[in-house]
Amino acid sequence: MKAKPGYEATMQAEMLNVVAATRKEQGCIQYDLHVSTNDPTQFGYYEIWDSEESLARHANAEHMNAFREFRKDMVDGPVVIETYRKIA
Questions:
Q1: Is there a contact between 57 and 25 (Cβ–Cβ < 8 Å)?
Q2: Per-residue pLDDT reduced to its tens digit, 36-88
Q3: C-alpha closest to that of 86 among 24, 36, 30
Q4: Tally of CB atoms within 10 A around 40
Q5: Which of helix, strand or coil describes residue 32?
Q6: Rounded to two decimals, what is the model's pTM?
Q7: CB contact at 8 A, 45 and 1
Q8: What gap in Å lies between CA 52 and CA 28, rounded to an integer?
């Protein structure tokens, strides 16, 4: 997701709170926050879950719902979510 200019620090702080809460969730294997080396407004999570069910629970977790509400006026453009399944 891309933060609107001037909201980078605020977004990062809240996204770090999401990391802390998410890492405590059942089924979370890895949950890391990244920022682009070329664009300090561009953030992304790298996540590994033990099942699709755990990921679905995470998507509806209270802290995720709160974060979606928090970020709505700070995000520039659509939030892109891509999922992958490990094959090797």
A1: yes
A2: 999 999 999 999 999 999 999 999 999 999 999 999 999 999 999 999 988 99
A3: 30
A4: 13
A5: strand
A6: 0.89
A7: no
A8: 11
Q: Are 36 and 42 in contact (CB under 8 A)?
A: yes
Give the SS3 label for residue 51: coil
Look up residue 29 and give its two tokens.
């294997």
Q: Which two tokens stand for residue 73?
A: 């006026």
Burial label, 35 (beta-carbon count in 10 A; 0-12, 13-18, 19+): middle
Residue type, 35: V
CB under 8 Å to 55, separation ≥6 — which residues? 27, 47, 49, 83
